[in-house]
């Protein structure tokens, strides 16, 4: 099997069998990451360019580690150290990078659609590492991988996603992916943070967190994206936390074997208490570990090394 597109821009356009194929490949990559010598020659001689024009810790580090574990050469640009700060456009920058003949480009950008624009312009595979409010496909893949690993399946599970749904590219990618894989998805947050059209995508909206968490298998908590919000979507952080923060009491509404996830970075004491974030149901660091293997799988599958 092969992925249909040369690029990974979103989860919305992937077929369920493509998602399963990527997750199965991720399992193989996890075996590599568990070895003493965590390196295979699969992408030897290939160059991966990481263009991170918005802040990132997990995604940027894991793409870099993933490429290196596959023996690719890597080059990372950020907004401040590049000629973008001198007024060069993203398109001109991309054309110049392409002239150096790299093999893949990973991009995080604050504008929704920036990776898709580059994908149309460039011959090489483009991977979306998070664009504006749009999608964060590799985050959804690592989330699905973590759930599948912990629960042994995806189909039939009930997943609650709680927080700032409107501004969250993670919520959008998770929703597409989890629905395609047969999960029931509940979305919970203040009405000012839930897009009006969202139930068309097959999710059920819950304004009340106690109701939303009743009997769920998985809870995904989201950070409030203050950098993407206009003012006035909720009265105060303290109030938001009181109504939508995940506490030990609220975890008690879910199934006994619930798992708690968060894409990071966490705002401790806002959307999740430290006791819950570090507690027995939390799989937040498992998500981070799976991020490396998922990104290895995506780089491998899009490189053509597996026979594109
Ligand atoms: N989950 C996520 O995208 O984290 P970073 O912003 O640190 O990459």
Oligomer: single chain
List low-confidence stretches.
Answer: none
Shape: globular
Q: What is the first-to-last residue Cα distance?
A: 9 Å
Number of helices: 11
Model description:
This protein is α/β, with parallel strands linked by helices and 308 residues long. The chain has helices at residues 16-33, 58-69, 90-99, 114-121, 137-151, 169-180, 209-213, 237-244, 248-251, 274-277, 284-303, and strands at residues 47-52, 73-78, 104-109, 126-131, 158-162, 184-188, 204-206, 218-221, 259-261. Strands 7-6-5-8-9 form a five-stranded parallel β-sheet. A four-stranded parallel β-sheet has the order 2-1-3-4, with helices on both faces. α6 (169-180) links the parallel β5 and β6 (184-188). The protein starts with 15 loop residues before the first helix and ends in a 5-residue tail after the last helix. The model has no long low-confidence stretch (mean pLDDT 94). The protein binds phosphoric acid mono(formamide)ester. Phosphoric acid mono(formamide)ester binds next to α2.
